[in-house]
């Protein structure tokens, strides 16, 4: 794994640490990185995006992650958008996706299920564990889901109703970081 890919995974983990410090700690160890490495990677990332000479988001991802493994066309409303996908060793069944508007602007950047990888079976609240699914998977499994405002730029929320183990339908709010489920609040 190259240094830039490692740094980028540490940046993703840094944002997830607020919700799931134990999972992040295990992942960081799996990558062979220290806490200081994670802090430094995040510091470099923040400096890169805040620099007065900062590249556009699309070219920044290309410079950090290289050429996308896959480039797809996704329909968003009436528009044909380009989706760039990169593998990340920490999450082999997922891909980091950057969705580009027709004018080249980045519309979205998050983790999605890899093409051809099987999605998790999401039938009840108990299936919604941290890091078990992506925003799209939860929204499809428990439609109709309503988007909620995220608490930070890389965070998303979904409100939906899902059955518990006994089949009782409950109101839920799921929080996602970089598109990956972090926690679920049940009312």
Characterization of the model:
- This protein is an alpha+beta fold.
- 30% of the residues lie in helices and 32% in strands.
- The protein has 5 helices and 8 strands; from the N terminus they run ααααββββαββββ.
- A hairpin with a 6-residue loop joins β5 (146-148) and β6.
CATH class categorisation of the largest domain: Alpha Beta
Counted by DSSP, the helix tally is 5
The overall number of domains is 3
The strands making up the biggest β-sheet line up spatially as 1-2-3-4
* Oligomeric state of this protein: single chain
Helix amount, in percent?
A: 25-40%
Low-confidence residue ranges:
none
Which series of helices and strands comes N to C?
HHHHEEEEHEEEE
Mean pLDDT, nearest integer?
92
Helix-and-strand structural type:
alpha+beta
Query: What fraction of residues sit in β-strands?
Result: 25-35%
End-to-end distance: 42 Å
- Biggest sheet, open or closed, and with what strands and sense? 4 strands, antiparallel
CATH architecture of the largest domain, by name, is: 2-Layer Sandwich
């Amino acid at each position: 794994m190259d240094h830039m890919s490692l740094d980028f995974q540490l940046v993703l983990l840094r944002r997830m640490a607020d919700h799931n410090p134990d999972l992040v700690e295990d992942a960081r160890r799996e990558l062979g990185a220290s806490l200081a490495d994670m802090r430094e990677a995040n510091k470099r990332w923040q400096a890169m995006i805040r620099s007065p000479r900062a590249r556009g988001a699309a070219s920044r991802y290309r410079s950090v992650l290289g050429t996308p493994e896959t480039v797809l066309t996704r329909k968003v409303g009436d528009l044909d958008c380009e989706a760039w996908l990169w593998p990340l060793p920490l999450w082999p069944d997922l891909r980091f996706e950057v969705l580009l508007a027709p004018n080249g602007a980045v519309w979205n950047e998050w983790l999605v299920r890899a093409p051809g990888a099987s999605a998790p079976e999401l039938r009840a609240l108990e299936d919604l564990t941290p890091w078990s699914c992506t925003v799209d998977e939860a929204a499809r499994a428990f439609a109709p889901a309503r988007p909620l405002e995220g608490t930070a730029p890389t965070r998303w929320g979904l409100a939906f109703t899902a059955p518990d183990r006994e089949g009782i339908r409950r109101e839920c709010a799921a929080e996602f970081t970089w598109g990956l489920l972090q926690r679920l609040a049940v009312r």
